[in-house]
Amino acid sequence: MRNSSDTIRNRTYNIPTCSTVPQPTAPPRAPVMIVVVVVVVVVVMGVMLVVVVIAVLLLVVVVIVVVVVGESKRKGRMLKEVTRSPR
Predict the structure, then answer these.
(1) What is the predicted pLDDT for the residue at 42?
(2) What's the half-sphere exposure (Cβ side, CA atoms, 13 Å) at 19?
(3) Cα 11 to Cα 15, 17, 48, distances in angstroms
(4) What distance in Å separates the CA atoms of residue 70 and residue 63, rounded to the nearest whole number?
(5) What is the pLDDT of residue 3?
(6) Between vectors from CA 16 to CA 13 and to CA 22, what angle results, nearest 5°?
(7) Computed over its alpha carbons, how large is the radius of gyration of the chain?
(8) Rounded-to-integer distance, Cα 3 and Cα 78, Å
(9) DSSP code at position 83
(10) What are the average pLDDT values for consecutive 10-residue runs of the chain, which has 87 residues?
(11) Confidence (pLDDT) at 79
């Protein structure tokens, strides 16, 4: 009859020894193409933001000019009507 300790034992004596695997000293870098694409997208979006801001500012200036010119024309007509001598 077999002893159970004969069949269940630590059999690590047949495992081959392995050399250690060198670990990288720095994390792997992103591929250059990804970095270039991200930089281009950020630059393009920044330029688009500047263009939109300039367009909005120009629109505000145009609205202000239209309102001011319209008010001055309206006041000019009112002044002519008030100062018109009756005949």
Answers:
(1) 97
(2) 3
(3) 8, 14, 68
(4) 10
(5) 54
(6) 135
(7) 42
(8) 120
(9) H
(10) 54 65 75 90 97 97 89 72 63
(11) 63
